[in-house]
Amino acid sequence: NDPDLVVKMLPTMQRVGGKENIQIQKAITGAEDFSYFQEQVPGFFFFLGGMSPGTTESFPHHTPDFIIDDSGLTLGVKTLTEMSLDYLNMDD
Prior knowledge:
Layout: H1 3-17, H2 34-38, H3 70-88
Helix pairs in contact: 1-3
């Protein structure tokens, strides 16, 4: 993750998702090709919650038990759109 970009985009994520819902977590490694993109372009990886209200157990992506609440997808699209617009309007 690019720490400077995270700091710049954090207010956008808090505005869209609600400050109380945004958590900064310790970096983890996954099976994504994300690190290769990071060699060329600054960016950061974030997780989007998608559990249905009242659900207490979540399952990993790419498993038969994985279920996402569609409202999580809407939040994801809105977050990415707002971050893109805010990034394009930055001075630096």
